[in-house]
């Protein structure tokens, strides 16, 4: 059972509500032609999410982390591909709410999450810990090795 209230009481209970609501809105906006608009949206979304986004995110770009796949970061296409421009970062830390890792990586999703958290509409549960250096430490010990392996540096 999911821990999140919205997941338990809305998404699991009414799993077809979003798709049905989209159809109602399309028909309200476009009349009978709204059914065709809805059908195109139902075909387009999986194609765009699975094909284009994953295609972009695994084809060309740069990598911050040595993951077991071919995922890459493809800045500056975030708006076009729905925020998945930091695909390699996402594959390295899939449960992190924040995908940006470098100062120049713009994470629009993180901005939304922070805004919702400030309004107490979201709770940030997990963010990848940023690696850091201990000033003056010159030797590599078990803790250093674990940090390097964990953070895939």
Automatic annotation (TrEMBL):
Localization in the cell: Membrane
Gene Ontology MF terms: oxidoreductase activity, acting on paired donors, with oxidation of a pair of donors resulting in the reduction of molecular oxygen to two molecules of water
InterPro entries: Acyl-CoA_DS
Transmembrane segments: 20-40
Main location: membrane
One GO CC term on file: membrane
Alphabetically ordered keywords of this record: Fatty acid metabolism, Lipid metabolism, Membrane, Oxidoreductase, Transmembrane, Transmembrane helix
Topology of the protein relative to the lipid bilayer: Multi-pass membrane protein
GO biological process, one term: fatty acid metabolic process
Domain of life the protein comes from: Bacteria
Family designation: Belongs to the fatty acid desaturase type 2 family.
Record-given protein name: Fatty acid desaturase domain-containing protein
Native organism: Paraburkholderia caffeinitolerans
């Amino acid at each position: 059972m999911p821990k999140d209230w919205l997941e338990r009481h809305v998404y699991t209970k009414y799993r077809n509500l979003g798709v049905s609501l989209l159809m109602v809105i399309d028909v309200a906006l476009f009349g009978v032609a709204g059914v065709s608009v809805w059908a195109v949206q139902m075909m387009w979304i999986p194609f765009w999410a699975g094909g284009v986004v994953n295609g972009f995110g695994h084809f060309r770009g740069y990598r911050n982390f040595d993951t077991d796949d071919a995922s890459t970061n493809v800045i500056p296409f975030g708006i076009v591909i729905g925020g998945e421009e930091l695909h390699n970062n996402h594959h390295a830390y899939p449960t992190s709410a924040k995908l940006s890792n470098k100062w120049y990586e713009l994470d629009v999703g993180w901005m939304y999450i922070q805004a919702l958290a400030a309004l107490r509409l979201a709770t940030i549960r997990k963010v990848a810990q940023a690696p850091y250096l201990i000033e003056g430490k010159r030797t590599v010990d078990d803790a250093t090795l674990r940090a390097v392996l964990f953070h895939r540096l």
